[in-house]
Amino acid sequence: MDGDGEGQSRWCLSQVKGAVDDDVAEADIISAVEFNHSGELLATGDRGGRIVIFQQEQESKSLPQCRAEYNVYSTFQSHEPEFDYLKSLEIEEKINKIRWLPQKNAAHFLLSTNDKTIKLWKISERDKRPEGYNLKEEDGRFRHPSSLTTLRVPVFQPMDLMVEASPRRVYANAHTYHINSISVNSDNETYLSADDLRINLWHLDFTDRSFNIVDIKPVNMEELTEVITASEFHPLQCNTFVYGSSKGSVRLCDMRASALCDQHSKLFEEPEDPSTRSFFSEIISSISDVKFSHSGRYMMTRDYLTLKIWDLHMESRPVETYQVHGYLRSKLCSLYENDCIFDKFECCWRSDDSEVMTGSYNNFFRMFNRDAQQDVTLEASWENGSPGCPLKPWRVCTGSRRKRNEIGVDCLDFSRKILYTSWHPQDNVVALATVNNLYIFQEKPN
Amino acid sequence: MLGKGLKRKLEQEEENDVMSCPQDASPTCYWLQRQTVLNLSLLKLHSRPGHSDPGLARRVLITNTLRHIQDELRGEGGPIPQPFPSTGAPLGVVDGCRERPADCGVEVQSEGSLTPVSRLEEDRHLLLCLSPSISRQQPPSSSVIKDSFTSALAEIEDLCPTVGITTLFTTEMGRSLTSDPNSRQTHPDLSEMNSGLDSVSSLSDSALSVFGHTPSLLTDFSLDDFLFTEIDSLLFDNVPCGSSLSASSGASKVVSMVTDDLVKTLTGYGNGGTSQSALPSNQTFKLDLNELDHIMEVLVGS
């Protein structure tokens, strides 16, 4: 995984999307990244409520060297800012999550959500249009009836490809708190949406009703000590889902057990190590992301400093724990002051579940090879290296900088963070977002 | 703090010992870090991001951190051998920290020391604007003042008989009254969370009392603060009593309405037959303490 002795990894930069100047508009900050189920489409959402979908170039699929060539396919405004008059609060249009539906026909469907409302979007192509109407001219003007002497059948003529995005469903008014997760069920009919205190189950076809399946709101809000932070359906079992909490525990629930899944079927919680206890122990244990493996046998959780792989059969402790940036443990007070300690990092699995990946600060991202028990730190930067050039691994050291590609902890830039990542479902291509750029990396074939 | 490419030199390392002190180091270090976290947490809870709803998850995490510190302090309880005015070496630490309020956030006031004028200025600005980023001093002093108001009043009279009691009174009441409408405007659950903040204020209150502050000592200091600032605004404004009060007690209309009522009530007691002009700074203003107590009860709704 660490590459050869010359310090090269097997990963190389494929593309960078987005403006590369230093002036970043708030609306352009990317807030969601997601490949679809075939990997052909890559969707990104930003704080301005827009979704940009990239498509893999068809020609390059056959050429292994140019596999990851993505170009803009469609851009549309998914969510608009709203104002809650009752509470005098703005509802941000920022896209929190994007989830694709498995493809059933020529059109593509995705769910996108902001803090309050989920929308189902249909993205379809139009490359033909009917021509030869009897009652209308080509420009749309109606023909005078007296000028009609013959009848003809309109025919489809080819036209320039047009990609249309249309909202098919709007699932609104079901969440009092901020939605943090959506997850499509393996039955392809239902999906869940989770906010801080509740999880709702929806049927894709019905927007006027949803079922509450988890509710952890206490009767007295002053007694609230724990919130839901992430939730996901099992990839194969349509009755199973998990949700992570701010206290570092993950609960697995079975919807067959009862209508309201307040009682968990399994509780995944690792006992705290008393030697590392600090004022921030609870904050850094808060689960920022939970993802099932493709096999459905394992589950990965991300908290502030670590990645943990759990075997669903064992609740007492994770089977693997990876330190993402343990050198931050001594900086927690400063990170609390500048609010970085509340950053929610995502994580993702490789297609065969042999590797996992997550983001860090200073535009670093970390890849962990579970089989080889190796890890590597790479940087998402368009300055260093050109596309196709293998990335050099980085090392963060606590002392002063010694060699090239080493950086001291105190020199890290905490404003440049990689929170959102997605791994191609089949190929070894990863997409991740820095503040306003989308990076696509590809593994060199051996 | 951490930023882009900032390298710390060796001599600056001791400044940052506060942050990176391991827990099992000297108790002073631990105490300092705990105090820092306490102040940071209070600051974060009080600052409102503005128009959009602050995240519930974040508030819960900060509140839990505060509760943890509160439980620790309760567990320690009783008279604490803390670095306080009486002991020698820790005093050095305390003084050092006071010079770097941004880092340390220690609110210790040793006996006989006066607040630097810069701090008074800072407090006045915050007081008058009711800005969200309150000084770390405000939560403890407000709760302390509420608790020991009657004794404070007696001390006010002794300390500064020339300044109008009404201005102090209305400023205090204004602040404690506006805290409620503000919280109601936000998310209803936030207001429910805010009621938990009262326990937090009492936390800082208990924290301070644990640290050996006598309430009256702190009250003296804080009241001096307000008295000095009110003198300034009175001297410069030189306008009728009612409008200067409403200008100084904040932007909220609720406050000015209340203060107007209070002014009418109280000036009736104090000024007697004199004109309704600005409270002259050289006029002795004596109030009947019983009347004030009664008004206090009505307003606080005890």
TrEMBL record, chain A:
Organism expressing this protein natively: Cyprinus carpio (Common carp)
Annotated GO MF terms: protein phosphatase regulator activity
Assembly and binders: PP2A consists of a common heterodimeric core enzyme, composed of a 36 kDa catalytic subunit (subunit C) and a 65 kDa constant regulatory subunit (PR65 or subunit A), that associates with a variety of regulatory subunits.
Entries under PANTHER family matching the protein: PROTEIN PHOSPHATASE PP2A REGULATORY SUBUNIT B
Any one GO cellular component localisation term in the record: protein phosphatase type 2A complex
Superkingdom classification of source: Eukaryota
Lineage: Eukaryota, Metazoa, Chordata, Craniata, Vertebrata
Protein name per its UniProtKB record: Serine/threonine-protein phosphatase 2A 55 kDa regulatory subunit B
Family of this protein: Belongs to the phosphatase 2A regulatory subunit B family.
Keywords linked to the UniProt accession: Repeat, WD repeat
From TrEMBL, chain B:
Domain SERTA as annotated: residue spans: 30-77
Region entry Disordered, spans: 175-196
GO (cellular component) term, any one: nucleus
Extent of Polar residues compositional bias: 176-185
Highest taxon of source: Eukaryota
Name of the protein described by the UniProt record: SERTA domain-containing protein 2-like
